[in-house]
Design goal:
The relative contact order is 0.06. The protein is of the alpha+beta class. The strands form 6 sheets. Strands 10, 11, 13, 14, 15, 16, 17, 18, 19 and 20 form a 10-stranded mixed sheet that branches. Strands 3-7-6-5-4 form a 5-stranded mixed sheet, covered by helices on one side. It has 13 helices and 27 strands. Strand 5 and strand 6 form a beta hairpin. The protein is flat.
Length: 675
């Protein structure tokens, strides 16, 4: 008999799950989530609509805010354990897919999942997965005979390798009224019996006070009669690998003519309504868009682009982007510079444009400074600097399609902050253009602190060889950083998905140093993977600081607390992470708290307080808290009440306990903890 009680059907909360955690799980396992949605959706929907609906359901599965709840419950079997973010997103995908399979009723308001998706949309093409063999066809016909909950149960067991108890819990959490009947339906089909009533009809017949349904007989794992679990991973059921065919060409031509006639009529009406009259017009005193403007024309003239001579930077007072010489074999290519300036001023709809947060994307205010123009990989790349921004223009060497325009704010960049700029990213690799004062470049993997950096070659223009970028990697298996050497020592720069790599630092606020020392590398090796939370946020520097050490209860060793603060070029948008480092140096840091736009662990407010619920190796639970050395006492209230003199605290607690932390400063003021 299946060891399942009716209490197992009560959905256990997955939380707490952050939006960033759910997004990371969705991006990392997007193809698998779309495959799950595609298999659960009813085959009667049609293959094209199933493909688009599956993608739409997965893309709408992100939560709008943090999902509350206790810690993740222990699975009944070790193989049922899943990441909390992935468990939440998968549950949302199943819930929407089950709703999408419900029939539309005449007087009922349709739910969003039952309607054709607004996005994604594909016009003029019919998309469908690749056709499989006889086994895939038989499995598709079998799925069509099953109800939506039974299809979901089959997918959870066959594709997700979940046990029956976990299948019941997941189906109950997804809103299935009677998940037992879904497994019973699979059992009946396995025995060549008539399937039981679908879960939707059973749920309608049973009232809120119905007697508990006895658990179904154990259903074996999908076998040859069901087509085999491996068939679920075949191309027949892969909505991410698609074939394309044209739609109805004659009907499209008729619709196109109708749209063209309507657009012409709309333009004529708009022109008549926009004729000038008395008073101020829509643009006031501004000249027409085609009027000549001397300042704007000067900014677009390649002959007026500022070029710094190579002999300027050695005698300059400041070492920043303003003293970089113009480099590259195409620095004298006037047509290329003219195209780059024109796209910068008026990017067309086909141009792929990006900008870090807080970076203006308008045209140049005057002739910009040329940093580089040359061929890199399969593109012609131009780098400009206008005092506030670095602007990168790229176009393919072959053809005229696929131009790209990127903006990054760099005001205040000086010395180490102006040591390198990203030239290209391709095939998971990145190349840098280094400053003229950089005398050596190397690559250091943050996750391997004991390994010496290996040399990174550069060409005559200062462009480095390609190196794998962590910003483009799907997993945190290695974290390559650029180590540059100048006249004052070594600098460590990390690629965070922007034009200018961020400087990696170590030490307390107000006195940081470059993270090249042994102690800094040892801590960064355990915290580097948390840098994924600040990718593409306009970060100029990231500093780590070990603000406390703590002896753990029950003789479990000595742990450390680290504060990581990411500062942006624009000043706002900083992010603070408090992390707990267990005694074992091979164990990565655990994220204890985070804060956005908080002064904690910064120059203005160097103090920081954080806590975590920790389980000792012997099984006991404790609330741990730690702060900077200037804290007089630490207090915990709520589910656990305790107080300790000094900056650290360890109080006996129970599993899942929640408490509020605070500290008292030496001057008597109270200080809350990071959350």
């Amino acid at each position: 008999m299946l060891n399942v009680s009716t209490q197992d059907l009560v959905p256990s909360p997955v939380g707490p799950v952050d939006v960033e955690q759910a997004e990371a799980a969705l991006v990392e396992r997007y193809p698998r989530l779309v495959r799950i949605a595609y298999l659960v959706l009813p085959p009667t929907m049609g293959r094209k609509r199933r493909v688009l609906t599956a993608h739409a359901l997965v893309q709408r599965a992100l939560p709008r805010r943090r999902v509350p709840g206790p810690a993740v419950p222990e699975p009944r079997r070790p193989e049922d354990a899943v990441d909390p973010g992935y468990a939440y997103v998968r549950g949302e995908v199943l819930r929407q897919a089950l709703v999408a399979g419900l029939p539309l009723r005449r007087l009922a308001v349709p739910r969003r999942a039952q309607l054709p998706p607004l996005l994604p949309q594909v016009w003029g093409l019919r998309l469908f997965p690749r056709a499989g063999g006889a086994d895939e066809l038989a499995l598709d016909q079998l799925l069509a005979r099953l109800s939506a909950p039974a299809r979901a149960a089959y997918v959870l067991r066959g594709l997700e390798r979940q046990g029956d108890a976990e299948v019941l819990r997941v189906l109950a959490a997804a809103g299935t009224g009677d998940p037992e009947s879904a497994l019973a339906e699979l059992a009946a089909l396995e025995e060549d019996e008539e399937p039981v009533a679908p879960a939707e009809r059973v749920a309608e017949q049973a009232g809120p006070g119905r007697a508990p349904v006895s658990p179904p007989a154990p259903v074996p794992a999908p076998g040859p009669r069901f087509g085999g679990a491996s068939l679920l991973e075949s191309a027949e059921f892969d909505p991410c690998t698609l074939q394309a065919r044209p739609g109805d060409l004659l009907r499209r031509r008729q619709h196109g003519r109708a749209v063209l006639v309507g657009a012409v009529a709309l333009l004529v009406c708009g022109a008549l309504l926009g004729l000038p009259g008395d008073g101020w017009g829509r643009n006031g005193a501004a000249a027409p868009s085609y009027a000549r403007n001397p300042a704007a024309e000067a900014a677009l003239d390649p002959a007026k682009v500022r070029r710094v001579a190579p002999a300027v930077w050695p005698g300059a007072v400041r070492r920043d982007f303003s003293v970089w010489p113009a480099r590259g074999e195409l620095a004298g290519d006037a047509p290329l510079l003219r195209r780059a300036l024109a796209v910068w001023a008026r990017p067309g709809g086909a141009v792929e444009s990006s900008a870090t947060p807080g970076t203006p994307v308008g045209p140049p205010m005057g002739p910009p400074q040329l940093l580089f123009a040359g061929r890199v990989d399969a593109a012609r790349v131009v780098l400009f600097h206008d005092g506030l921004r670095i602007v990168r223009y790229a176009e393919p060497v072959e053809g005229t399609a696929g131009a790209a325009l990127d903006f990054a704010r760099t005001d205040g960049a000086e010395g180490p902050g102006a040591s390198a700029v990203v030239v290209t990213r391709a095939a998971g690799n990145v190349r840098y253009l280094t400053a003229p004062w950089v005398t050596g470049t190397a690559v250091r993997d943050l996750l391997m602190p004991g390994k010496e950096p290996w040399a990174l070659g550069r060409d005559a223009h200062g462009v480095t060889d390609a190196v794998p970028s962590p910003a483009l990697a799907e997993e945190c298996a290695r974290w390559n950083t650029l180590q540059v050497t100048d006249g004052s020592g070594g600098r460590l720069l990390g690629d965070l998905g922007e034009l200018v790599p961020a400087r990696l630092l170590w030490g307390p606020p107000g006195a940081p140093v470059d993270a090249t020392g042994r102690e800094a590398r040892a801590v960064w090796a355990r915290t580097a993977c948390q840098l994924t939370t600040v990718l593409g946020q306009g970060v100029g520097s990231v500093r780590a600081w070990r603000f406390a050490r703590q002896s753990l209860p029950e003789g479990a060793g000595r742990a450390a607390w680290v504060c990581t603060r990411a500062e942006t070029w624009r000043g706002t948008g900083s992010r603070v992470l408090a992390q707990f480092l267990p005694p074992d140096p091979e164990v990565p840091a655990a994220l204890a708290a985070r804060a956005q736009d908080a002064p904690a662990c910064g120059v203005r407010e160097p103090r920081v307080l954080a806590g975590a619920l920790w389980q000792a190796p012997a099984g006991g639970w404790y609330v741990l808290a730690a702060g900077g050395p200037d804290l007089a006492s630490v207090r915990v209230e709520g589910g656990v009440t305790a107080r300790a003199e000094g900056p650290v605290l360890a109080a006996k607690a129970s599993a899942g306990a929640r408490a509020e932390l605070s500290a008292t400063l030496e001057d008597g003021r109270r200080m809350p903890a990071l959350r």
